[in-house]
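Help needed: design a sequence for this.
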């Protein structure tokens, strides 16, 4: 079974749905995040997951929607690697320079640019 094997459809009783809506409102998080946040809390409280696992998912599901949106916008506006065979478009982490030409590069294509005589101008 593929990745969908971990997808479950659950019916929440009205009382639980209202409580989840309250969690969403108080934490400013989405519906799925609120449900998974509370599942994580319940599994920890009953000793089914260890502390590192709890902390990992707590951080993941408690992120406010406005922060997720901000991260998404920053990612959309990030400079992209200009390696073109095939078109890369990964987020650039380094600015390369050869003569007057300045271009962004992802970590994967750094060596390719250097083979064409580009040097690292700055790390992003
Ligand atoms: Zn690249």
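Sure. Designed sequence:
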């Amino acid at each position: 079974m593929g990745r969908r094997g971990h997808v479950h459809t659950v019916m929440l009783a009205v009382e639980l749905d209202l409580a989840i809506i309250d969690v969403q409102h108080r934490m400013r998080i989405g519906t799925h995040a609120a449900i998974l946040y509370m599942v994580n809390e319940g599994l920890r409280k009953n000793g089914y997951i260890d502390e590192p696992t709890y902390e990992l998912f707590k951080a993941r599901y408690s992120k406010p929607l406005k922060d997720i949106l901000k991260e998404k916008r920053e990612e959309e506006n990030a400079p992209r690697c200009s390696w073109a065979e095939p078109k890369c478009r990964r987020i650039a982490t380094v600015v390369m320079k050869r003569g007057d030409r300045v271009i962004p590069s992802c970590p994967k294509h750094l060596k390719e640019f250097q083979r064409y005589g580009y040097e690292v101008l700055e790390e992003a």
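The mean pLDDT is 93.
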